[in-house]
Design goal:
The chain is mainly alpha-helical and 442 residues long. The chain has one domain. Helix content is 65%, strand content 1%. It has a two-stranded antiparallel ribbon with strand order 1-2. Strand 1 and strand 2 form a beta hairpin. Helix 6 packs antiparallel against helix 7. The longest helix is centred in the C-terminal third of the chain and has 33 residues. The protein is globular. The relative contact order is 0.15.
Amino acid sequence: MNYSLRNILLLLLFFVGLTGEVLLETFCQGCLGDYKSPVVWLLSGLLSVFAAWGLLISRPDKTPSLHKESFLHKKTLASFTLFMCAAIFFGFQLSEIFAKFEVSQYNSDVVPSIQMYVRRLLSGEYPYTPLVFDGWTVLPTYFPMMWLPYIFSEVLNIDYRWTAYLVFLSALILYQFRMYRQDIPLVEMIIKTLLPFLILLPFTFYNEIFFGHSVELLPIGFYLFLYFGFFNKNKPLLFATGIVFCLLSRYAFTLWLPLSMLIYWNEYGFKAFFRVSLYVLMGVMIIYVIPFLSQDFSLVTNGLKYYELTAIRQWEPQAWQAVGEKPHHLFQGLSFSAWFYNNVEGDALAKMNAARTVHGIVSVGAAALLGIGYLLIKRFRTQWNIRLYLLVGLKFYLLFFYGFIYVPFSYLFVLPTLLSIGIVYEMNIWDLIQSKDKKMPI
């Protein structure tokens, strides 16, 4: 049997890069120092991105081969049973973490803030009024999809953090059922089934606060849903729904989105582009503009001003830190903010403004590089999968967006890492290994 040494090497490089990302976000976080750690984190992510591009970019856009043998039903049952066991086991891990990290405004105001939004809505109040805590007041800046799903938790009287996990699992289940339609070996099914939990497992030991104080699995689930419906020209509503969910939750992909839509227009025509755009507009109007923004159009501008105010506070030592210590969130080994803090002259505002300027330039540059890459590949290749190019390209963009972000809360960096799950589900690993090596045009 012939094996592709090229693809085997690229697969190894992909998983090496992914492993580096996870290590630098868990037990090795900051272990290489304030400057080297973010560099290695970014390079690890880029390694996985370029390896994935090498594996996926030449794959034609085709319908996956379907099951034909009766034994394949046994593989499906075995894989789904494994998935459920892994999900339940991980749920037990989370229950211990949730018990350890009590939901309290004195520990973190993330979940308490979400509770205020939800309870106000259910009691008939307008959710977007100042959130008053014991000793401080927070302006409401969350978009609706960061808190609306937790109506589920409030109605059933369960911990809000379970809803985030269930949304994440729901996205994985969609991938599982699509995988079951493909004629792939059981070993590949097992790898894809266990990978999400293997990535998250180190966080339960070395970064418990990710689960205890944040609900970041919710927007991560939305991004995986976006991947699932990505450029499905036969189901534009599915693609548009993923965009709306991400746009109204963790909207970090804002600069990538216009580029992707322009490419969508060029690939599938104005009619397809118009349908997706119309669905997105309708979703934003129904979920956000009509029920909430229309009652106070200053929500967006006031939210941006308040974000800037809270951002500058992160460039100063926190109240609970000892005198003389450097700002906690800047020195977690995940962002280049530490460099700006140490090397830019002036006060905290000057340092932050320098970091913010570079963040904007780098983010625009990353999106521009994706556009240039599209034009070059379009020019020199006759067969390629544009959907997969932009799928991997979204992680490429987010690596730079978060790598240079000037408010570097550590839980934000998990999003680009977990996007690798969607990339792996798109790989036909066994086919890639067996394919013959051949020279690529680019």
